[in-house]
Specification:
Blueprint lengths: L3 E2 L5 E2 L17 E3 L5 E3 L3 E2 L6 E2 L6 E6 H6 L8 H4 L3 E3 L10 E3 L14 E5 L2 E2 L12 E8 L13 E7 L7 E9 L3 E13 L3 E12 L4 E2 L9 E14 L2 E14 L4 E6 L4 H5 L2 H9 L5 E2 L6 E18 L2 E17 L11 H9 L13 E26 L4 E34 L3 E6 L5 E19 L4 E21 L14 H6 L5 E23 L4 E12 L2 E2 L13 E2 L2 E16 L2 E21 L32 E20 L4 E17 L5 H6 L7 E4 L1 E13 L3 E13 L2 E3 L2 E3 L2 E13 L4 E8 L7 E8 L4 E6 L4 E9 L1
Subcellular location: Cell outer membrane
Membrane topology: Multi-pass membrane protein
InterPro entries: Beta-barrel_TonB, Beta-barrel_TonB_sf, Plug_dom, TonB-dep_rcpt-like
């Protein structure tokens, strides 16, 4: 974090979001020496698994320290989007299941795709689903852009996000904070470090309880949406005995709310809505809802429970040789049920006629009781994961060579029910007269697709940097990875009238093919391997100018679709790995322009992707495509029960490319005023589409989505003004942040561009005490804006967006000791 100091005075902070190097900081820091000259302070990051100056790191890395996180009012994973231009967060099922997107690379919205961007907690890779990391007592967050693998955990083609919790200290210290805000927000958080054995053993306990009412009025079934109800507790133990250091972290997190706002924005014709005879009713409902009102067809929910255990062991054999081992264990229990079309129910004359004519239901069916909803979903993911990374680090050849050799292992497997995807299209609820039980409610469809995935990844890697001269070095990384997965999957065998909730059972039921609970079950296996590498040249041209050029070859594993396909889709049961060749050229420089310190960081990047993995939507059987003479259904059988889960097929669409520029400019104009401007400008192309033999896929391949939520331009400007206030507070710090993004593209859907303004004022050291007080306002102008697309399907006839928060304000108080 940049810190600006005046002799005997105060520290000031600036919300300075940056794309290259330390692209964003809520505080830009400068120091003033005794001669009153302002200089840029050194910023230390760990982007290459060691402490070093950010201005001499040959990678695009964004760093936010604890103060920066506070001043940006970051309380959840998704808050990072406006804090770090060039990344996208959202679009995969709500705040507790974020979709990380960097340089157009992400993961499939459905199925078993490996993420192109991996998040890490204390350097342990997080599960692909339910990967929201609680923003509690964080020391820093770093975002690395571009292919990773020779230095961090799993192979990725987009980047890595590193969450570093605060470690215990050997002094008694900590803080307690409370927040009160709009929509009855109540938050209390705190942490304390306790020395147990002087300079040898220390513990830290951190806790956070955050509650807020929902800001979206739900006039349908269930409670108001977008509320917050989270609890987090973390215990850390640090042991330091000579050359031996061990850090143990146990982290528990729970979140439980009534779902999030999804708002329908477009109706397409002709579509399945016409076939059901409900298109006019749908249009009327869409026109009658504003962006802060939802009419849910059922009681939604979003729940996440996480347990994370990390043990980090370091041992120094000599000053030039050390050993590091990082062990991780995680349990994730994610369960969310979103009303993904954002609509209520409708009276469908088509379904009414079908039910009345059904020989099994006709005599029992209650006329006029049929209520049809368009698309409803449920996802349950119960997974446990272990990982271990061991590194041998050293310095050789008179310290001219810094090197790391390591081995990485990860295994994720089902924990209980594994993963269940339940997406029902044109679900109809109705009543019938049961001869014994009386009047009952039933559904015309229900159940879900069950995935029991065991995913294993092993790798050996080397990374080294050799100083050719005092200013020029060469950097080389090499990694060999093997990925294997075994997947048992199938469909619910639950009779439709028992309801739409999926039935929970364990993996043995799937493997045994128990047809009383699961149908169409089978085991799919897939393996892949790759050698990835990086090669770079680093030149410290002067003390203040650093340039670098790096070539990287990256990879992410293949995966599988569900349920078990037959017919025309059989060849698309699995998909191949994706590989990328990436080039990045950067220059980082500090200047003094007439006594004004200025920092400019600029980089150019270009990635060429082969076998690009893409989502293909619309894989559902609807009445409009199963009429006589029309057979263009996903697998050609006009049977909706074996359609792709969620209507999405992940496949290798072809070859793609991404290129762009990242820019950061920071200036200290006066002792009190600092400003910054940051930008990401990028472009993406589908260079080649592979031949597809399947008629359904060939007809829709142009709508495949290899780039989820790709934005061409993102800009951010920041102002920081900081002054001492004698007799009242030590300092007053005012921050203003402006964020603007172009359209976010998802296939045929464009989420409109928007801009946001956030402000915050901090009073440090109130009345000479250790109490800080802050007032913040996010989305100052109360703009209504879409942040992701929930559903976008021309065949179904709907486009619905997830909307961002309205104006939110809060008052914080914190006591430091």
């Amino acid at each position: 974090m940049y810190t600006l100091k005046r002799q005997g005075a105060f520290r000031t902070n600036l919300l300075a979001s940056s794309i290259i190097a330390v692209s964003f900081h809520s505080v830009n820091s400068f120091a003033q020496e005794e001669n009153s000259a302002l200089i840029l302070e050194e910023v230390i990051v760990t982007a290459r698994r060691t402490d070093e100056s950010v201005q001499s790191v040959p990678v695009t890395v964004t760093a936010l320290d604890a103060d920066a996180l506070r001043e940006a009012t970051i309380t959840s994973t998704t808050d990072l989007q406006q804090a770090v231009p060039g990344i996208f967060l959202g679009g995969s099922g709500g705040p507790q299941n974020p979709l990380y997107v960097i340089r157009g690379q992400s993961k499939g919205l459905i199925g078993t795709t490996s993420p192109a961007v991996v998040s890490y907690f204390a350097e342990v890779p997080q599960p692909a689903w339910g990967s929201a990391v609680p923003q509690v007592d964080m020391a820093n967050i770093q975002i690395l852009k571009g292919p990773q693998g020779t230095l961090f955990g799993r192979n990725t083609t987009g980047g890595a996000i590193l969450y570093a919790p605060t470690t215990p200290s050997h002094e008694l210290e900590g803080y307690v904070g409370v927040t009160a805000g709009r929509y009855d927000q109540k938050r209390i958080q705190g942490a304390v470090s306790v020395p147990l054995i002087e300079d040898k053993l220390a513990a830290r306990i951190a806790a956070d309880v955050n509650k807020r009412d929902g800001y979206t009025d739900n006039i349908g079934v269930g409670g108001d949406l977008d509320k917050v109800d989270t609890e987090a507790l973390r215990f850390s133990l640090l042991a330091e005995f000579g050359a031996f250091t061990n850090t143990l972290i146990v982290d528990h997190f729970e979140s439980d709310n009534d779902g999030f706002n999804i708002h329908p924005v477009s109706v397409f014709q002709p579509s399945g809505l016409n076939a059901l005879g409900v298109v006019d009713d749908v249009i009327a409902q869409v026109d009658g809802l504003d962006e802060r009102t939802n009419t849910s067809a059922f009681a939604q929910h979003e729940r996440n429970k996480r347990l994370t255990v990390v043990n980090r062991t370091e041992f120094e054999f000599t000053e030039s040789l050390s050993l590091l081992n990082i062990f991780g264990y995680q349990e994730t229990d994610l369960d969310y049920a979103p009303n993904i079309d954002g609509l209520g129910t409708f009276n469908s004359p088509v379904m009414e006629a079908a039910l009345s004519a059904d020989p099994a239901l006709g005599p029992l069916y209650v006329p006029g009781s049929a209520q049809t909803s368009i698309v409803k979903a449920r996802l349950i993911d119960q997974t446990k994961q272990i990982s271990n990374e061991i590194q041998l680090r050293g310095h050789s050849f008179d310290d001219r060579l810094d090197w790391i050799v390591g081995y990485f292992y990860l295994k994720a497997e089902p924990d209980g029910a594994g993963q269940i995807n339940s997406t029902t299209v044109f679900q109809t609820q109705f009543q019938f007269n049961h001869p014994v039980a009386g009047l009952q409610t039933a559904y015309t469809n229900g159940g879900g697709q069950h995935f029991f995935l065991t995913d294993e990844s092993e790798a050996i890697f080397f990374h080294g940097e050799y100083d050719l001269t005092d200013s020029l070095s060469v950097e080389v990384g090499l990694r060999y990875t093997e990925d294997e997965f075994e997947l048992c999957l199938g469909s619910d065998a639950v009779p439709a009238w028992l309801g739409s909730d999926p039935v929970l059972f364990d993996e043995s039921t799937c493997r045994n093919g128990d047809t009383s609970q699961i149908l169409n079950s089978a085991v799919v296996t897939e393996s892949s391997d790759a050698t990835t590498w990086s090669f770079g040249l680093n030149w410290q041209a002067t003390d203040d100018v650093f340039t670098y050029a790096v070539l990287r070859h990256g990879y992410r594993a293949g995966g599988a679709n569900g349920p078990i396909f037959d017919g025309d889709l059989a060849d698309y049961q699995t998909f191949d790995p994706e590989e990328v060749d990436d080039f990045e050229l950067g220059i980082k420089a500090d200047w003094n322009l007439g006594g004004i310190p200025v920092r400019t960081n600029l980089s150019y990047f270009q990635g060429e992707y082969e076998n690009a993995q893409a989502d293909l939507a619309g894989g559902v059987t609807t009445p409009s495509v199963c009429t006589e003479g029309v057979t263009l259904t996903p697998d050609g059988d006009c049977d909706a029960t074996d359609d792709p889960t969620g209507g999405a097929v992940v496949l290798n669409v072809g070859d793609t490319s991404v290129s762009g520029v990242d820019l950061e400019v920071v200036a200290r104009l006066t002792n009190a005023l600092s400003v910054s401007f940051n930008a990401t400008v990028q472009d993406a192309d589908i260079d080649k589409i592979y031949d597809q033999d399947n008629a359904f896929i060939a007809s829709r391949i142009g709508g495949a989505i290899p780039f989820l939520y790709f934005t061409n331009n993102v800009y951010q400007a920041n102002i920081n003004y900081s002054i001492p206030v004698e007799g009242f507070v030590e300092e007053l710090v005012f921050n203003a942040n402006y964020y603007s993004t172009s359209e976010a593209v998802k296939g045929d859907t464009e989420i409109p561009s928007y801009s946001l303004t956030n402000i915050r004022a901090d009073l440090r050291g109130v009345a000479g005490s250790s109490i800080d007080v802050a007032l913040y306002v996010n989305n100052v102008f109360d703009k209504e804006y879409g942040i992701s697309s929930s559903i976008s399907s021309r065949p179904l006839g709907l486009d619905s967006f997830v909307y961002g928060p309205p104006r939110l304000w809060g008052l914080e108080a914190r006591y430091n000791f």
